[in-house]
């Protein structure tokens, strides 16, 4: 099921996925832009954005608060919010059919453990305002890129119309 999802989203050797199709529709100059050396530094900044956000001390503190909440909820070994899904996947040995989540023709029902992890994750994200704080950190980095590369962004918009 996970492979089918990835193929649908990202494509495979026979066809592009939804992601590429939508990117081409929304940004028809995208492929040319990605290869344009004029904007290489800007593109590099955006590629490194997520790793910089995740390496930020404030993100580490946010993850620590979330992990503490998850430990209180009975899941003591998690360090980052992404670990919740990985734990559930690992614990149940991957995906396996049971009841009623349908993706194309495959039916799957989450186990009780997966549901418990998901609910604890949701509650802990809410308790520490995870999305709000993570987004604020990310936006700060995005604004920094926008300020440092204002001229390049202006030029990019004029040249590629996006």
Q: Could you characterize the architecture of this molecule?
A:
With 162 residues, this protein is mostly helical. The protein folds into two domains: 35 residues, no CATH class; 124 residues, no CATH class. It is built from nine helices and two strands. It has a two-stranded antiparallel sheet with strand order 1-2. The protein is flat and about 55 Å long. The relative contact order is 0.14. About 3% of the residues have low confidence.
Number of domains: 2
**Which class do the helix and strand fractions yield?**
mainly alpha
Q: Strand order, biggest sheet? A: 1-2
Strand content: under 5%
SSE string: HHHHHHEEHHH
Q: What's this entry about, in short?
A:
Helix content is 69%, strand content 4%. It has 162 residues and is mostly helical.
Secondary structure layout plus pairing:
Layout: H1 2-10, H2 18-26, H3 30-35, H4 40-55, H5 57-72, H6 82-91, E1 101-103, E2 106-108, H7 112-127, H8 130-148, H9 150-160
Antiparallel strand pairs: 1-2
């Amino acid at each position: 099921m996970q492979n089918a999802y990835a193929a649908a989203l990202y494509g495979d050797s026979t066809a592009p996925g939804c992601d590429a199709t939508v990117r081409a529709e929304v940004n028809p100059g995208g492929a040319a832009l990605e290869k344009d050396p004029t904007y290489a530094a800007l593109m590099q900044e955006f590629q490194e954005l997520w790793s910089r956000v995740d390496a930020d001390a404030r993100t580490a503190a946010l993850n620590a608060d979330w992990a503490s909440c998850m430990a209180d909820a009975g899941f003591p070994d998690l360090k980052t919010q992404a670990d919740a899904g990985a734990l559930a996947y690992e614990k149940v040995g991957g995906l396996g059919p049971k009841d009623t989540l349908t993706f194309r023709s495959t039916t799957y029902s989450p186990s009780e453990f997966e549901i418990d992890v998901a609910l604890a994750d949701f509650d802990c994200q809410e308790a520490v305002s995870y999305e709000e704080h993570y987004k604020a950190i990310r936006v700060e980095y995005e604004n920094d890129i926008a300020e440092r590369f204002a001229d390049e962004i202006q030029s990019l918009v004029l040249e590629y119309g996006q």
